[in-house]
Design brief:
This protein has 389 residues and is mostly helical. The protein has helices spanning 5-27, 44-51, 56-74, 77-104, 116-129, 135-148, 152-158, 165-171, 193-206, 214-238, 253-261, 270-286, 292-302, 305-326, 353-366, 368-380; strands at residues 111-114, 174-177, 186-189. It has one domain. The protein has 16 helices and 3 strands. A 3-stranded mixed sheet has the order 1-3-2.
């Protein structure tokens, strides 16, 4: 079946939002010292700047699974499996080379970060191995993972079970030194694959929904989205299960609300998934009805996700370097090996939040033409390597 605009529109929306989080990460004045979701130090504006970008990763992973299902309708199982294997290993390679360098600008690669690109790559490999299993069964497995994975810590503790480091790395974020201890290299598992694999499986099974007639699909997505959000509110209100971070009454109504929606991304909790996938389904339901200008712009970014993802990090990091020079920080003060993106730890640097928004808009705007060019290039050329971009 042909490429569906609604998928690219929603993917484009979250890619635009994603750039805001990465500009904040690299350039905000407090990003090295303060968590934007720490209610004891944050502001509502800063909290929202981080919270809204929670939508991005689950949408990427879910739609990656959906795209595999749709691809399977046009290709044989063997062809799809081989493409998934190749693309999966390629994405993991890109994560630890091109992407990690773009993030840190550290030629010594002192920090290796396993993030969303590698997680999708890992998911592709596993999905390739399981393609013979009916999509409905994989969807049930995915839902089972999302619903019950928050029980794992309680089960392990109650049974006095200690997992080995390899198994732990699949279900829980962690960091560990590697290589020569004198070089101070560290591997960080930011996106444990197990929970994200559940999201990809559900996305794969949901691919069947996109075969429905447009109006039926819209009604179904509205029901799913609203049901997910209603479940989120109900489970979150009980404050018993679904997220390791319980909500609390805060100093005022605004911060109490922030506490209520302050869910856990690392790893993605059940409530995190309900909230963000619920919003994603509503976006998918109405994407075809967005204003033509909105659709035109978001389609440009949504059709070249990997290209945009990698290039936007290099653009943001170059702007960060320019910012540091403009703030009278000399090259000798830059700290690339420390994981602080070149920003010296003990020297004040960065931009206020209002300037972060301006810089975000600037990054998105300057990437419009390159993204449009590359999308057109992919459409007009059939080189084999374009399948991996």
């Amino acid at each position: 079946m042909k490429r569906l605009p609604s998928i690219d529109i929603v993917r484009g929306i979250v890619m635009i939002i994603m750039a805001l989080d990465h500009v904040r990460d690299l350039m905000h004045v407090d990003s090295l010292t303060q968590s934007p979701t720490d209610l004891s130090t944050t502001t509502p504006w800063l909290f929202f700047t981080r919270w809204i970008t929670y939508l991005c990763a689950p949408t990427f992973v879910f739609l990656a699974g959906t795209s595999v299902y749709l691809s399977l309708q046009n290709n044989s199982l063997a062809e799809t499996r081989m493409l998934l294997f190749k693309r999966g290993f390629w994405l993991i390679f890109l994560e630890f080379t091109i992407f990690n360098f773009g993030l840190y600008f550290d030629i010594g690669f002192h920090t290796l970060l396993f993030e969303v690109i590698a997680t999708i790559g890992f998911g592709f490999i596993i999905l390739g191995l399981l393609l013979k299993i009916p999509s409905r069964i994989l969807g049930i497995i995915g839902l089972f993972i999302l619903i019950f994975h928050n029980l794992l810590p309680f089960i392990l503790v109650s049974q006095n079970v200690t997992l080995n480091p390899i198994l732990t790395s699949f279900i829980s974020p962690f960091g560990t030194p590697f290589g020569n201890p004198l070089l101070g290299r560290v591997f960080i598992m930011a996106y444990p694959p197990f929970q994200w694999l559940g999201i990809m499986f559900v996305g794969f099974a949901s691919g069947k929904f996109f075969e429905l007639e447009t109006l039926k699909r819209k009604k179904l997505f509205i029901k799913i989205g609203c049901s997910a959000l209603a479940l989120f509110v109900a489970i979150r209100f009980l404050n018993i299960y679904g997220d390791p971070a319980l909500w609390n009454v805060q100093k005022d109504a605004v911060f109490t609300f922030l506490s209520f929606i302050n869910v856990t991304k690392y790893p993605p909790s059940l409530l995190f998934c309900l909230l963000n996938l619920g919003i994603m389904f509503l976006l998918l339901a109405f994407a075809d009805q967005f204003h033509n200008k909105v659709k035109k712009v978001t389609l440009v970014y949504g059709r070249v996700p990997l290209f945009y993802f990698i290039v936007h990090f290099y653009v943001i990091h170059i702007l960060t370097i320019i910012m540091l020079f403009a703030q009278d920080i000399s090259w000798s003060q830059f700290e690339f090996a420390s994981g602080t993106f070149g920003r010296p730890k003990n020297t004040e640097s960065g931009l206020p939040l209002w300037a972060i928004y301006l810089m975000w808009i600037f990054v998105v705007v300057i990437l419009y033409k390159p993204s449009k060019w590359f999308g057109k290039y992919k459409l007009e050329n059939k080189y084999w390597w374009l399948k991996y971009c």
